Amino acid sequence: MFDLIKAQLEDGILVFPSILILLVIFAYLLYRLFRNLFPAPVMTDFEEFIKLIGDAGCDYDPNQDIFYSKMNAWQRKCGYCRLYDEAAAPVGMILDAEPIRFEYGGKRWLIQFWKGQYHLSTGCEIGVYYTEEPDLDIPDLFQGAFYRCADNGNRLDMAFSLYKNGRELFHRQEKHWWLTGFKTGEFSEPWELTMRIRLVLKDHEMCRSFVRAMKRAGYREAEMLIDGAAVEFTFDKPRTPQPLTRVDETDWIAQRNNERLCSVFREITGEDTSWPEKLSAMREKGLFLYSAVINIGKTREIFKVFERLKSYI
């Protein structure tokens, strides 16, 4: 081809369209050659599984067969405000929420607990947040406190066990800002679930402020086991007002859909022993489930409003 181009140049009859076509053909042939010699690596099922749960902000505990939030999950940049809880039920997450607000160290703190059905998973959470800023007042969008997720220096030692009708589903313990656990394929009504929670606050002063806030929320001191800066208690029936979007009729509809999804998930993956195998089975038999299962816990749908809030923060 180069000889042809050289000859045309020497003869002074270079035809640009022809040369361009030849160059394109030559480039394509080179691409095909290199693609065959050096094929792009194909992810294994396990590598795909790790990437998918990483994109969801999660890790996996094979001993308990649960997913849980990573320390630096993408959700950490989104903080917390009450709008997130209001967004949960409309996207099929039927959760009991218990916000405990108190003051300590010149900051307004929020430690909140959740338990319920996260679409295709039964799960629970403890979140630690604080703010030093005044409440937001955004017309037609939001009025109230926006909290930052606790930074590494303000993480707390936390633990919980999640029970369903008295049977322990899983246990988590870690120094964290967002301690979570999600068991995919398990269907539960929120009222069937109980969290036994232990928090180690930063010091006695923080513990006393937290305990006072628990009392304001409706807990009695006799229901709490206090040991120094540590508090242990049970979260069963919420004592605080629930999100306005939690309506019995729509909760029932969402839960019937969640129950059906869990049933189909167990049917499709019943004979598979590993998560890579389950993902492969769902790709083949239930693509709608594949999409649901890789969106673990609180999904990006919940945090969409953050894009509208962040310019005010």
Structure commentary:
The protein is an alpha+beta fold and 313 residues long. The chain has two domains: 2-37; 45-312, no CATH class. It has helices spanning 2-11, 16-37, 45-55, 82-88, 204-217, 248-269, 275-285, 287-293, 306-309; strands at 58-61, 66-69, 93-104, 107-118, 121-131, 136-138, 142-144, 148-149, 156-164, 167-176, 178-184, 193-200, 225-227, 230-235. Strands 3, 4, 5, 8 and 11 form a five-stranded antiparallel β-sheet that branches. It has a five-stranded antiparallel β-sheet with strand order 10-9-12-14-13, covered by helices on one side. Strand 9 and strand 10 (167-176) form a beta hairpin. Helix 3 packs across helix 7 (275-285). The longest helix has 22 residues, at 16-37.
List keywords for this structure.
313 residues, globular, single chain, 9 helices, alpha+beta, 5-stranded antiparallel beta sheet, 2 domains, 35% helix
